């Protein structure tokens, strides 16, 4: 158990490709830190640098306060779980689990005791004599976990350990890994591209993009207060609705214009974001979570008119794609493009520039494609971003999130 | 109406599969016949060699070919073994072959490890060179190599022949071993290094056991090459006591003709070790050890 500190960490391949740029990250003792980001964002490279499998171009890595830049992987006392498990195929499960202990010259009797205990905990007790080829995917995953745990290292490093499992097993192992980490209280750095994994498992989540750290915070804070457009679009499934709007000042009151609908911003919204007044007369990016988009019956505020494109029933709720008149974000470089919902326009004539708004609606609402619908948007639930930089317009305090239209 | 639509297809449908089935069977038969023909072409010379080895002298060159040795005799084998320098040749061949196999496997493992796992300047050029070297015909190299070796004082010495064999065995074995090493996921060594092994320890404890089939395949190749090679041995080894088995075999052909019976018996004896060696190790090749390392 040890704290891990990354200080101005960079990795440059060759002369030009920067995989990780000036990464600063403190992982506290016993913390479960998740590095998340789309593929090629540098998260795996960062992890491999901590493990010592990748050379550090500049910066420092400290484990337990000690700089480990020049230490070989074996001297860092960390354990790693690889994406493809990397079990030794010529050794049976027992030998796989015991390999690290053997390398560290742990006495034979102690090896046997620890391996058997771990095997019992992970339910591998009667498979110790099998080769990896004779195990199922889930069992291999367990052996890979066991090989890390049995060493009792200072830290666990996990590189997408669940990505090779099928969906059901993944959910199960997700909980299992989180539970094991909680019991052992070993500092863990976990890399994944799956934001659901990141949100459900991590004490804190570090979102990376193009080698740069975007935001580090608790899952809830990431969700409630994304630092920029990229985090806003990356975290959450389905992703946040993002589009352009214009902020207008009107005798000290601020109004947000979406398409041709004017949304008056109550005093608490503008006072929570003192800088928002500076944007009067300018375009901003605004975002709203799908669950905050509501059908407008019973809402006395401003309404957005739209047309239903598609209704996806999820059983407990329904996802409704609604086309509204608004300006789409043109700076696609600021958002996670894979998360953007596809916007197939039905070619509705009266909508000059259309945006597909994703709403998460109650399953009892009867809605069908082609229907006109009115949508209520609570200004208090809006997220505001600078259109040039993509950075969130900061709030003084966390806004109290209250349910709308209920 | 409905009865018509039901009845109509029934007489047609069983005929279609039967016709397809017959065509497929004919095609299959054709391939099988071709396979048999190829097998016959491959196997017959070997059979003829063995059969001849067992025939008494006067039957070998009879105008009506004798397909089976009706009165098998071991006299040809006795003659062959009693030829001068037979046991010298056996000893020389064993020395040459075992040295070439051992050296080429060790050197090829280390060289291919460097080529597969390390990045260094000129690596690509080196790989291309290894491939290119194998394109050069051996006959073109014999004279320059002979001059080189004679300056080094290595003509008519087994060490010279061993060095020569390595020059054409190594490129192939390095190339093959590199392929085997590339097939092993790099995470395996990395896992070993994180688990506490040194880089060299990871090679020895993880890579070496996994590359076993590759080592076997390359050693078979080296064995066959070194055992069967004739021209270099013939050119370089003058003294009869220093000749290898293949050169010794050629001594049955003299100015006065060829002594076919003992020659065939000798050839059969020479072929045996290769077959035995192959039988010993072939089970190790077929079995891919890397199964189960990564997801499956």
Give a description of the structure.
The complex is a heterodimer of chains A (406) and B (296). By secondary structure, chain A is of the alpha+beta class. Chain A is 22% helix and 32% strand. Chain A has a 6-stranded mixed β-sheet with strand order 6-7-8-3-9-10, with helices on both faces. In chain A, a hairpin with a 3-residue loop joins strand 16 and strand 17. In chain A, helix 2 packs across helix 3 and helix 2 runs parallel beside helix 4. Chain A is elongated. Chain A starts with a strand and ends in a 20-residue tail after the last strand. Chain B is mostly helical and 296 residues long. Helix content of chain B is 74%, strand content 1%. Chain B is built from 15 helices and 2 strands. A two-stranded antiparallel sheet of chain B has the order 1-2. In chain B, strand 1 and strand 2 form a beta hairpin. Chains A and B meet through strand 6, helix 2 and helix 4 of A and helix 10 and helix 11 of B.
């Amino acid at each position: 158990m040890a704290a891990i500190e990354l200080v101005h960490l960079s990795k440059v391949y060759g002369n030009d490709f920067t995989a990780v740029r000036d990464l600063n990250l403190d992982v506290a003792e016993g913390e479960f830190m998740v590095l998340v980001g789309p593929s090629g964002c540098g998260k795996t490279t960062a992890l491999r640098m901590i493990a010592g499998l990748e050379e550090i171009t500049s910066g420092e890595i400290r484990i337990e306060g000690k700089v480990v830049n020049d230490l070989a992987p074996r001297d860092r006392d960390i354990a790693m779980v690889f994406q493809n498990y990397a079990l030794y195929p010529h050794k049976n499960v027992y030998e796989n689990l015991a390999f690290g202990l053997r390398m560290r010259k742990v006495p034979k009797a102690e090896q046997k005791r620890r391996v058997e205990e771990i095997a019992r905990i992970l339910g591998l007790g009667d498979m110790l004599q099998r080769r990896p080829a004779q195990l199922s995917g889930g069992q291999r995953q367990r052996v890979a976990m066991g090989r890390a745990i049995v060493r009792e290292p200072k830290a666990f490093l996990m590189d997408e350990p669940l990505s090779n499992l099928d969906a059901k097993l993944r959910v199960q192992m997700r909980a299992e890994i989180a539970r094991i980490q909680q019991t052992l209280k070993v500092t863990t750095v976990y890399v994944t591209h799956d934001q659901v994994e990141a949100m459900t498992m991590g004490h804190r989540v570090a979102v990376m993009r193009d080698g740069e750290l975007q935001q580090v915070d608790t899952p809830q804070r990431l969700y409630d207060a994304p630092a920029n457009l990229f985090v806003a679009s990356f975290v959450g499934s389905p992703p946040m609705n993002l589009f352009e709007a214009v902020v207008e000042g009107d005798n000290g009151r601020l109004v947000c214009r979406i398409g041709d609908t004017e949304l008056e911003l109550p005093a608490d919204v503008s006072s929570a974001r003192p800088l928002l007044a500076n944007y009067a007369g300018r375009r901003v990016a605004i975002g709203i979570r799908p669950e905050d988009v509501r059908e407008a019956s019973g809402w006395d505020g401003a309404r957005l008119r739209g047309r239903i494109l598609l209704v996806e029933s999820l059983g407990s709720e329904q996802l409704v794609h609604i086309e509204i008149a608004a300006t789409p974000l043109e700076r696609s470089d600021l958002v996670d493009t894979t998360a953007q919902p596809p916007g197939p326009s039905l070619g509705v004539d009266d909508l000059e520039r259309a945006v597909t708004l994703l709403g998460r609606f109650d399953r009892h609402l009867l809605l069908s494609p082609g229907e006109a619908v009115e949508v209520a948007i609570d200004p208090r639930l809006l997220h505001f971003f600078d259109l040039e930089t993509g950075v969130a317009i900061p709030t003084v305090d966390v806004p109290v999130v209250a349910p709308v239209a209920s | 109406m409905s009865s018509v639509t039901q009845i109509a297809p029934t007489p047609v449908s069983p005929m279609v599969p039967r016709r397809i089935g017959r065509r497929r069977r004919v095609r299959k038969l054709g391939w099988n016949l071709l396979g048999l023909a190829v097998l016959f072409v491959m196997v017959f010379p070997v059979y003829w060699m063995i059969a001849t080895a067992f025939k008494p002298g006067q039957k070998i060159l009879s105008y009506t070919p004798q397909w089976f040795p009706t009165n098998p005799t071991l006299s040809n084998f006795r003659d062959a073994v009693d030829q001068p320098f037979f046991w010298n040749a056996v000893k020389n061949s064993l020395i040459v072959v075992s040295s070439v196999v051992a050296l080429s496997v060790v050197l090829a493992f280390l060289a291919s490890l460097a080529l597969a796992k390390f990045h260094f300047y000129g690596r690509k050029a080196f790989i291309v060179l290894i491939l290119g070297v194998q394109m050069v015909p051996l006959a073109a190299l014999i004279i320059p190599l002979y001059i080189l070796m004679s300056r080094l004082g290595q003509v008519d010495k087994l060490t010279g022949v061993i060095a020569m064999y390595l020059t054409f065995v190594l490129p192939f074995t390095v190339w093959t071993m590199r392929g085997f090493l590339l097939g092993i996921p790099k995470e395996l060594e990395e896992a070993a290094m994180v688990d506490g092994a040194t880089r060299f320890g990871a090679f020895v404890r993880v890579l070496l056991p996994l590359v076993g089939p590759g080592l076997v395949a390359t050693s078979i190749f080296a064995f066959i090459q070194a055992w069967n090679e004739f021209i270099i041995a013939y050119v370089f080894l003058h003294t009869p006591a220093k000749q290898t088995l293949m050169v010794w075999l050629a001594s049955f052909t003299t100015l006065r003709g060829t002594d076919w019976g003992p020659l065939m018996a000798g050839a059969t004896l020479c072929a045996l070790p290769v077959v035995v060696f192959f039988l010993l190790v072939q089970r190790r090749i077929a079995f891919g050890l890397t199964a189960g390392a990564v997801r499956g």
